[in-house]
């Protein structure tokens, strides 16, 4: 590893030059003594003699040096001010240029620049450099004919996918690949029209046993013969609240109702308990383990009246 070359100090140069001026030794002897090159020592001697007068006029030299430093500082400050101004102006201009549309920015790029290269131009206006060299290929006659054929098939049979459209083109005498048909359909924005699956918003609880509809062909001729209950939501500005109610099928009267901020089984159970306390009779039909407990606690319910009915608890998705 090479050693770093040492730079002689001013004191060392002065010592060597004074020995040369004294003349006790030759130049070569002095150079051999200090391991120097004669040409270097001669240059040091010239500089020393040229500036020897400064030793007798130190004040003027210092004053001139200070004045020169002040002048340089003023020039540097002025350059910094101009540089800051130009930088702010360039940032403002670059921000405005970046907000321009694609075609306008593309027109600003100079293909044969004199000072700023194309790469730097693209960076300044936030433009992709590859777009400067890309030239779009014109749509050929064969492609236009194929696009018209695809559009015609889609217009006649909008439920055909790209596979069936490809089959129709092959039968029509066109030589085209499957992927090419798919790409052309995407280019034209053609999407298959087909019936979608019905969205199910009500899911039965997996623990609930499914019973037959016992109220089918049943004639409701008196109050308190058949009750039904349901839960729904009410949209508010700050969210939703949930309403549960029990209705009598004969009189269409609301026997009990409650509103809650959460949709859970306790809401429906409390509504059922309230209806039983107000209008409870001997005969009851109910379903599910959530309703069985309050019904069994009702004093007027009997074991032989325990029959399943069409009432069931469901969980609903709230949109």
TrEMBL record:
Gene Ontology MF terms in the entry: sequence-specific DNA binding; transposase activity
Residue intervals of the Integrase catalytic domain: 221-283
Chain ranges of the HTH-like domain: 142-198
InterPro entries in the cross-refs: HTH-like_dom, Integrase_cat-core, RNaseH-like_sf, RNaseH_sf, Transpos_IS3, Transposase_8, Transposase_IS3/IS150/IS904, Trp_repressor/repl_initiator
Alphabetized Pfam families for the sequence: HTH_21, HTH_Tnp_1, rve
NCBIfam families linked to this entry: transpos_IS3
UniProt name for this protein: Integrase
Naturally occurring in which organism (per UniProt): Piscirickettsia salmonis
């Amino acid at each position: 590893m090479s050693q770093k070359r040492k730079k002689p100090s001013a004191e060392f140069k002065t010592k060597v030059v004074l020995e040369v001026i004294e003349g006790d030794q030759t130049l070569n002897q002095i150079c051999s003594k200090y391991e120097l090159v004669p040409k270097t020592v001669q240059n040091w001697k010239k500089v020393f003699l040229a500036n020897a007068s400064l030793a007798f006029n130190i004040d003027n030299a210092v004053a001139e040096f200070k004045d020169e430093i002040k002048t340089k500082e003023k020039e540097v400050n002025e350059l910094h001010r101009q540089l800051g101004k130009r930088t702010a102006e360039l940032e403002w201009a670059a921000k405005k240029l970046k907000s321009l549309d694609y075609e306008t920015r593309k027109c600003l790029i100079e293909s044969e620049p004199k000072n700023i290269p194309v790469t730097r131009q693209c960076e300044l206006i936030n433009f992709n450099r590859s777009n400067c060299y890309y030239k779009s290929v014109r749509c050929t006659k064969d492609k236009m004919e194929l696009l018209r054929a695809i559009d015609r098939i889609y217009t006649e049979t909008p439920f055909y996918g790209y596979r069936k459209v490809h089959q129709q083109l092959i039968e029509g005498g066109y030589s085209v690949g499957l992927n090419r048909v798919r790409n052309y359909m995407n280019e034209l924005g053609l999407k298959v029209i087909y019936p979608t699956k019905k969205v199910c918003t009500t899911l039965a609880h997996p623990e609930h046993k499914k019973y037959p509809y016992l109220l089918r062909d049943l004639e409701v001729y008196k109050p308190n013969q058949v009750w039904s209950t349901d839960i729904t939501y009410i949209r508010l500005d700050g969210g939703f609240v949930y309403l549960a109610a029990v209705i009598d099928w004969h009189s269409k009267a609301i026997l009990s109702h409650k509103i809650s901020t959460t949709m859970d089984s306790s809401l429906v159970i409390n509504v059922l308990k309230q209806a039983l306390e107000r209008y409870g009779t001997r005969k009851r039909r109910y379903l599910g383990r959530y309703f069985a407990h309050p019904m069994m606690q009702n004093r007027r319910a009997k074991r032989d009246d325990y029959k399943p009915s069409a009432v069931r608890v469901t969980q609903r998705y709230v949109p």
